[in-house]
Amino acid sequence: MINDVQTKIEQLYSRVSSTVEQGAFPHGVLVECQNEHEGELFARFIANCLVCRGQNKPCGVCQDCIKAQGKGHPDIYETDGKRKKSNTFSVDEVRDIRENAFIVPNESDKKIYILKNGQNMNEQAQNAILKILEEPPSYVFFIIVTTSKSTMLETVLSRVQVFSFLSEEEQVTDKEMAIVKNMVSAILSVNEIELMEQTAVFLKNNQLAKTILELLTEVFRDALVKKSGFVRKFRFMEETEKLSNKLTAKSLMQLITVCDDLINSIERNCNNNLLVVRMCYEIKRAMGR
Ligand SMILES: [Zn+2]
Q: Which residue from 208, 181, 182 is spatially nearest to 275, judged by alpha carbons?
């Protein structure tokens, strides 16, 4: 297992070097890594490869490499966007970066922005980044580091290339993410048909159903955590926020029980159509309808 992880990380690093050498590196990159420190090291490696003027990037001996590795390269900017003791990535910081990006580089022919703390970028900050990701100056490169790509807006994800440190099992696919988001919005709506339709999407396939129910349990638990005032990173930021604002702790706990029961029923191979009906009924009950 350790070896697999090691190989995967080595592959990520060599993928960066070769893409930069081919001159085809994308202007927007997202580094997904649960360990923030590890993600940041990787982002710095990318920045180093981009400014390197030698062969076999990063060559480690050119002036740019020496400066980048000493963290003193004038064209590599690194920020976690935190202002006024807040943990959020400030939208003002993004606006400053946007202005700064239009000033040509100092020494290199490229300018690189490493935006750490991506998991704490709210919608406003992400939309501000999106504006420049859509039409970046030719010399500008953005590297956003986040603990989970699910914290990013889909519009941002469509503009970046993702380098993920997560193992296949840890990665939530775009499809699964979309299903969970739709389910949460169906739960919050009072529309019975929508709830029925969304539930049917994943309860027909046992493997998918289990994954989605586990993810839903995670969102409900996170909403409970948020409700009790804890501030931490959540995989589904928007959904966690909405659920914690709109539902009572009692409803959230009941929803967790509903998911648990359903997972047990799936393992006992119950009829899937009946499960859809049961899940909708139980959700409505948990919501007090
Ligand atoms: Zn170099």
A: 208
Question: Taking a C-beta distance cutoff of 8 angstroms, is the pair 140, 27 a contact?
Answer: yes
**Mind listing the pLDDT tens digit for each residue in 98-155?**
999 999 999 999 999 999 999 999 989 999 999 999 999 999 999 999 998 888 888 9
CA-based nearest residue to 218, from 250, 173, 177: 177
Closest CA to 52 of 80, 25, 30: 25
Nearest alpha-carbon partner for 99 in 122, 119, 77, 71? 77
Phi, psi for 106 (deg, rounded to 5): -80, -55
The tally of CA atoms less than 13 A away on the side-chain side of residue 235 is 21
Distance 144 CA to ligand 1 centre (A): 23
Indicate whether this model's pTM tops 0.85. no
Q: 194 CA distance to ligand 1 centroid (A)?
A: 56
Rg value, the chain, Cα: 22
Residue keyed to tokens 């062969």: 55
How do 111-115 and 76-79 pair as beta strands?
A: parallel
Q: What distance in angstroms lies between residue 6's CA and the mean position of ligand 1's atoms?
A: 24
Note whether 161 and 28 are within 8 A (CB): yes
* Token reading at 5: 């992880």
Distances (CA, A) of 15 to 18, 40, 71, 158: 5, 17, 22, 20
Largest CA distance in the chain: 68
Both tokens of 47, joined, read 């920045």
CATH topology of domain 2-164: Rossmann fold (3.40.50)
